[in-house]
Design brief:
The chain is about 30% helix and about 0% strand. It is mainly α and about 425 residues long. The strands form two sheets. Strands 1-2 form a two-stranded antiparallel ribbon.
Length: about 425
């Protein structure tokens, strides 16, 4: 295969950005490659556990703690992490319990009229992160990194308290962030599980196969639901993106423009100063001064949303951490037109322009907490186009719907099971 000068330059830059100076540092593990997928030692991956978690992530039948009867068994984790929307909400803010409708990718989901206000809904005061490639930043999850007992949270054990925020005491169990957050989310998002529910929905055998060493009396539990879901989520990686194929040797996988954008990404734009991991994510936190979700016409429940706006500082209690947020993955950015934790940008090129200009848009973010590497990049209009092409196309895996099950053991409709969603999806 002929390798162009551009490929040579790009390969050298990609190697230089890797801590081990190797191309394979940036290659994501395939979904069945359990040996090489980053995982929690307390929750090792198995095929049976991943299979159970795949079903449960989409299962509407466990939505049994809805605020009103109209919401019972109508939503799932995938209501806010929709496969067709790159495992993100299809609208600027996800709605679990209290939502109605789906559309093609969750974009038409609305508040059910029975639910009177934001406090009655299961909504987030911040835009949910995608769960794609989550294995590569799973030690500390969510935008402020408050879940997980390791890495960034070592030394903050005194903040593992319900007095700080609901669910943080779960960090004391010693799991990584993904496993911990899913345990917290089970209650937060109003799900239920016990042996009777497992039997009714057709999951008993799947639990038995996934957790054979757990006593039967402790097997059909919210914790095991969370561990199975975490196992599944660690396997949904964007391995079919053109840049991944290029890394594996197919130098025709990217266009010339995308290669030029990639070279800028690794050099002049210095994107890897923040997006430093294999999934172009990280467990570090930076303030870049973007607006919050409550600056938009969304369902906001104070003070829940206000606390989210403080970012990392809300968890650590340190003023220096205020308005700092976790570095998200850069794969599959185009499935929805919402960017940043507050959905404040609606176009990917606008995001590149924002970093190129490096002018904070949120006046409530003090200048002293803004990241030192958030500074003008000096990119030309053509260079902005090239980087946008790399992000939009070369980092897009168009096949992530393969991680969605074709049906559930319960036979329920998913990702939503309300009457409007069933009609829209032809799932009557």
């Amino acid at each position: 295969m002929n390798v162009s000068n551009l490929d040579v330059k790009l390969e050298n830059s990609v190697r230089d950005a890797a801590p081990n100076n190797a191309l394979d540092y940036w290659i994501l593990a395939n979904s069945k490659d359990y040996k090489n997928i980053p995982q929690d030692p307390k929750n090792p991956l198995t095929e049976e556990k991943v299979k159970l978690g795949n079903f449960l992530f989409f299962e509407t039948g466990i939505a049994l703690d809805a605020r009103f009867d109209a919401g019972l068994q109508t939503y799932s984790c995938s209501s806010c992490h929709i496969a067709e929307a790159d495992f993100k909400p299809g609208r600027m803010q996800g709605i679990g319990d209290g939502g109605i409708g789906t559309g093609n990718a969750g974009e038409t989901r609305l508040k059910h009229e029975v639910y009177p206000d934001a406090a009655s809904l299961d909504v987030q005061g911040i835009r949910p992160l995608t769960v794609l490639n989550v294995a590569y930043s799973a030690k500390n999850t969510n935008w402020n990194g408050s879940f997980g007992s390791k890495e960034a949270n070592e030394g903050y054990e005194h903040r593992f308290s319900e007095d700080v925020d609901e669910g943080l005491s779960l960090n004391k169990l010693g799991f990584e962030g993904l496993e911990t957050q899913l345990q917290e989310g089970f209650k937060l998002h109003r799900f239920k599980m016990n042996q009777t529910i497992a039997d009714t929905l057709g999951y008993t055998t799947y639990f038995d196969e996934a957790f054979p060493d757990v006593p039967e009396s402790d097997r059909y539990t919210p914790q095991n639901v969370a561990l199975a879901m975490a196992a599944y989520l660690r396997t949904i990686n964007t391995t079919e993106a053109p840049f991944q194929k290029w890394l594996k040797g197919n130098k025709y996988a990217m266009t010339e423009q995308e290669k030029r954008g990639a070279l800028l990404f690794f050099t002049k734009a210095n994107c890897t100063s923040c997006h430093a991991g294999p999934a172009f994510s990280d467990t570090r936190f930076f303030a870049v001064g973007v607006n919050n979700l409550d600056d938009l016409p969304t369902f906001v429940d104070e003070p829940r949303a206000r606390n989210k706006n403080f970012g990392r500082g809300f968890f650590t209690g340190n003023a220096d951490d205020l308005h700092k947020f976790k570095v998200p993955t850069l794969y599959n950015l185009t499935g929805t037109p919402f960017y940043f934790h507050g959905s404040s940008k609606r176009d990917l090129r606008e995001v590149v322009e924002y970093f190129n200009d490096a002018i904070p848009e949120n006046p409530d973010v003090p200048e002293e907490v803004i990241a030192s590497n958030f500074k003008p990049l000096g990119l030309t209009e053509t260079e902005i186009d090239d980087i946008t092409a790399f992000l939009a196309n070369a980092l897009d895996d168009p096949t992530v719907e393969r991680y969605k099950p074709t049906s559930l053991p319960s036979g329920n409709c998913f990702p939503n099971n309300d009457p409007v969603s069933r009609r829209e999806m032809g799932c009557e």
